[in-house]
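Structure catalogue
Derive tokens from sequence
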Amino acid sequence: MLIIVFSNNKLILRMHKFLINFTPTGMVPTKELTPHVPISPEEIVKEVLEAKKFGVSIVHLHARDREGKPTWQKEVYKEIIDGIRAVDGYNSNSLIICVSTSGRNWPDFERRSACLELTDKSKPDMASLTLSSLNFAKSASINSPEMIIKLASKMKEKGIKAELEAFDPGMINFAKYLHKKNLIEPPFYFNLIFGNIFNSQIGLLDQATMLSHLPENSHWTFGGIGTNQLNMNLSAILNDGGIRIGLEDNIYINDKRQELATNLQLLERITSIAKIIEKEPYTPYEVRRLLNLEL
């Protein structure tokens, strides 16, 4: 099915498709919480490659050290990226790889930006950029204006596209400021994340408000914290958006939190539902074209 839309008075034909951003690990899940979370580079690589069969186009990576704790070390990111690309290839239809510059575990620019130093076939396509400080239930992610600007500047210098993470409309507003300062450029890519107790919730008005604040030429995904993930993924697909999905945000397969999920179960469930309503995932090649990502 084709959707006909107008943008700046230009006719655009768009396939009835959706984008899948896969978040297999995150910084919080441990093997004690769920044995299904991939921790080692080998586990992450295996899970990512298996996930591609469900139509994943972007992979949002977090690295862990040998003890399973989050790490900033670029050597670990390199091992993961190289492992994925050794099998998936390095071409226009290869998975789009995004690394994390999160501020939840270390505050300094040197460690947070280390993964942006990777080069050649180990260089990531994208890197996360959280657009403000925020609290989680048991921790905080500190992102000062100075830090955000420094990270955005380095991403631009290295030719790495920012994955813009927003938990409320104010964060989207700061993305517009970064654009005015020529630190990011369209087409923009936003992860809009709902259900965190301190930020936007999952109601329709919250969703509409977030979408109404997006700048022109933006592509977006909905993510949901915890068991909100399924609701937000469904809402995004029904409204021609993309989805952020994986154990990073939700470790359960059911709302009652009685059964632990695997990443592949989460992906199989949402893609099966999408198929019923005649929607299918974009390929990595199609998303690279949407986001102007070139190898």
